[in-house]
Automatic annotation (TrEMBL):
GO terms for molecular function: carboxylic ester hydrolase activity; transferase activity. Belongs to the AB hydrolase superfamily. It comes from Wickerhamomyces pijperi (Yeast). InterPro entries: AB_hydrolase_1 (IPR000073), AB_hydrolase_fold (IPR029058). This is AB hydrolase-1 domain-containing protein. Residues 44-293 form the AB hydrolase-1 domain. The keyword Aminoacyl-tRNA synthetase does not apply. Keywords: Hydrolase, Transferase. Transmembrane segments: none annotated.
Length: 356
């Protein structure tokens, strides 16, 4: 594929990897209304950020969710973002396989997966591909459909970062580097919230080992935007219908829709009904960056949903085990664990992984 004029380095500079090791932050509960409660580590929360973001974008929100739900939150850096490895390809199936590998490496099962934007679609595909591994899904402003209209929003983000790196070329020692970065980004992104979102991943320090797009003496961005193929935005706005076709996730799904965004439209709602029949939706009065515009409201919706589903799960468990002895209940638990272990072995053998 031909590169566009704003690409800086040849595509060959980015390696290819079917799976990469994802960097993460683990947010453990530090406060709770009941200090005697045990951390439900067997039902953790996995948080996936949006495109051009990282696990550092929402540290405060993730910690609050951990505290309120008394549940560990694993905030991941997706490939080519934050502190994770830079590698091709960048399709949704590969992103989803990275998440699966992380769950296997950390022995996570029955997770509640939370995803925003890019992370939302990765979460949706993961729920469809590996339903046995998830307790619930919480999706922030995206849908399981191709949506080229959203590309205009994302293209502005991409152009702003490329402009920052190629034209602004901010010296890393300049004491006003953040202000200069702000000025460069806002040439394409007029929303102050969007500018701040991108600025969180601009660095004036020496690059970490994973950084592949860097010029010595200048500020760099944590995402190798100048090394991507010209259809990067198209890949982000598409949806792997060939993989999702015929699949359903029957567990509970919470959708948080931004009222002033075009990421969830009529065909997206239809797709939710088709693939996620037990979904519910709440609307917040803001644009696409819901976690930045309506942080407290989104955190409350997420925590309320997780606690409600936990209560329903407990009630179901009590009904299913009524009249059983302790030994019989243990047999049920052991069988559930065996089913998950068998599934993981099949995935490792390639029986459940669809090639990218």
């Amino acid at each position: 594929m031909k590169p566009t004029s704003f690409l800086w380095k040849p595509l060959s500079k980015l390696p290819t990897a079917n799976a990469v090791k994802l960097a993460y932050d683990l947010h453990l509960p530090t406060r709770t209304v009941n200090p005697n409660l045990n951390i439900r580590s067997h039902e953790p929360i996995i948080f996936l950020h949006g495109v051009f973001g990282s696990k550092s974008n929402y540290r405060h929100q993730c910690q609050t969710i951990a505290n309120v739900t008394h549940t560990p939150v694993y905030a991941l850096d997706l490939r080519n973002h934050g502190d994770s490895e830079h590698a091709l390809p960048v399709d949704y199936n590969t992103y989803s396989n990275d998440v699966l590998k992380f769950m296997q490496d950390h022995n996570l099962k029955k997770a509640n997966i939370v995803g925003f934007s890019l992370g939302a679609k990765i979460s949706l595909l993961s729920l469809l591909k590996y339903p046995e591994l998830f307790r619930s899904g919480i999706i922030l402003d995206n849908a399981p459909v191709k949506n080229p209209k959203a590309g205009l929003f994302l293209q502005a983000f991409l152009k702003s970062v490329v402009n920052l790196l190629n034209k602004a070329k901010i010296p890393s020692h300049d004491k006003n580097w953040r202000e200069l970065g702000h000025q460069a980004i806002q040439k394409y992104v007029k929303d102050p919230v969007g500018v701040q979102y991108l600025l969180k991943n601009l660095r004036n320090t020496d690059p970490a080992e994973n950084i592949t797009d860097y010029e010595e003496g200048y500020c760099h961005f944590n995402v190798p935007v100048r090394l991507f193929e010209s259809d990067f935005i198209e890949q982000i706005t598409t949806w792997p219908e060939e993989i999702a076709q015929g699949k359903q996730y029957l567990g509970p799904v919470k959708v948080i829709k931004a009222k002033k965004s075009n990421f969830i439209v009529e065909d997206g709602l239809k797709a939710y009904s088709e693939h996620f029949p037990n979904y519910e939706i709440s609307e917040v009065n803001c644009g696409h960056l819901v976690f930045d515009n309506r942080s407290q409201e989104c955190v409350r919706l997420i925590c309320d949903f997780i606690k409600t589903q936990r209560y329903k799960s407990l009630q179901s468990h009590l009904r299913n085990t009524a009249g059983l002895s302790a030994a019989e209940i243990q047999v049920k638990h052991d069988q559930m664990d065996l089913n998950i272990k068998t599934f993981n072995k099949e995935v490792a053998a390639g029986d459940h992984v669809v090639s990218a």
